[in-house]
Amino acid sequence: MYGNYFSPFSLRISEELLNKIKSIAHANSRSANKEIEFILKQYVHQYEQNIKHLDLPAENLADTFPSPDNEKV
Q1: Would you say the pTM of this structure is higher than 0.85?
Q2: Least buried of 10, 36, 67, 68, by fewest C-beta within 10 Å?
Q3: Range of the domain at 36
Q4: Is residue 19 part of a domain?
């Protein structure tokens, strides 16, 4: 198990939208956080397929999306 290796990120959304996301997450057996992550990954994938592939510099990726292999124990 890798634990929580992603940086926390605060997101301000309406209570109504959060409740809808929680309902969808429950139907998909996910937490609201994982549901939001899933939705965002789908959005980025769709964006890259239809509009433009996002190439980020490797040094930025390591800071933004650390690998579980690089996680400090």
Answers
A1: no
A2: 10
A3: 15-66
A4: yes
